[in-house]
Write a structure and sequence with these properties.
Elements (H helix, E strand, L loop, with lengths): L1 H28 L3 E2 L5 H8 L9 H37 L4 E5 L2 E6 L6 E4 L5 E5 H6 L2 H17 L1 H14 L4 H26 L1 H11 L9 E2 L5 H4 L10 H24 L5 E2 H7 L1 H21 L6
Parallel strand pairs: 1-7, 3-5
Antiparallel strand pairs: 2-3, 4-5, 4-6
Length: 308
């Protein structure tokens, strides 16, 4: 499906622009920040103040940019780890799958009472079917399922979806990436449906969707779902990306990059002592912690007892 390919390319373009923006942000902000610890005299003087001393707007902008860059890196790393662990869990459950030839293609068959069929694997994607699906599908339905999942294998959809989800998780300030990731997942299913229809016809695929669509599928896989029956009946598809979301995303990318460039030029020779700024806020932070603790104790006292 051409629309799925175009959507994925747009997703990559926006993601690349966001990544380049973060490189500009980190390159402009981090070199101007210092993590050198303050002296003991400065530490005692800072903790004696209730509020931190005034920070220049330029130093504040650098701190905000640095915090944004670090947050993007942390969210991206967390997303990679979460999805990698999900794929690891899937493969650990499928390590006993038996390789079989089904409808002229290779698939791993695993034991499960539920009818399931999905594509899993990042670098080496494979088709997996449960024994219940293999035994419950007719020959035509099995051809449709294998063609559908085989299309996911050829397109390496698990890896593509992982890349789209990591970009959306990391670059949270670009709202279009989340919409593009979700829509691409839907269009990838429709493209695989079209491949299945060419092999087995719409009736066989629709029947397979009904049999397999109510089952749960492991996280980190690409699977068949029942809502695509409308597409088999001739319903048209569209991108569903509102222009205002794309405009807001481009403004967010351009505005962040512009702010980083301006701050880099204006802050030539400036050094911001990060730890000194943090230490100056210690009294206010201590007050917040004390108030939070008092609030927790008060809630425990006023909560009604369930005894009796």
């Amino acid at each position: 499906m051409a629309s799925a390919r175009r959507l994925y390319r747009l997703n990559l373009v926006l993601g690349a622009l966001g990544v380049l923006t973060m490189i500009v942000v980190l390159g402009s902000a981090l070199p101007k920040l210092s993590l050198a610890p303050p002296s003991l005299e400065d530490l005692l003087a800072a903790c004696g103040r209730f509020l931190p001393t005034a920070i220049s707007p330029l130093a504040g902008a650098l701190l905000i940019l640095a915090a944004l860059g670090v947050l993007v890196l942390a969210r991206g790393l967390r997303s990679v780890l979460v999805h990698a662990l999900a794929h690891t869990r899937v493969h650990s459950r499928l390590r006993f799958a038996v390789e079989m030839r089904l409808a002229g293609s290779s698939a791993g068959v695993f034991q499960s009472p539920r009818p399931q069929a999905f594509c899993a694997g990042l670098l080496r994607p494979r088709v997996f079917l449960s024994a219940a699906a293999r035994n419950g599908l007719s020959a035509a339905e099995l051809r449709a399922v294998m063609a559908h999942e085989g299309h996911h294998v050829c397109r390496r959809d698990p890896l593509r979806l992982l890349a789209a989800r990591v970009l959306a998780d990391a670059l949270f300030f670009v709202p279009a990436l989340r919409h593009l990731e979700r829509r691409y997942a839907e269009l990838a299913e429709l493209a695989a449906d079209e491949a299945a229809v060419r092999v087995a016809g719409p009736a066989a695929l629709a029947s397979a969707l009904i049999k397999l669509g109510t089952s749960d599928h492991p996280e980190g896989t690409v699977a068949i779902a029942p809502e695509r029956v409308d597409h088999l009946c001739g319903a048209s598809t569209r991108w569903r990306l509102e222009p205002r979301i794309l405009v807001l995303s481009l403004l967010a990318i351009g505005g962040t990059a512009g702010m980083a460039i301006v701050a880099d030029v204006a802050a030539a020779g400036l050094r911001v002592e990060v730890l000194a700024v943090v230490v100056q806020s210690c009294m206010a932070l201590m007050l917040v912690v004390v108030l939070a603790g008092m609030g927790a104790l008060w809630r425990r006292r006023v909560e009604p007892s369930c005894d009796g």
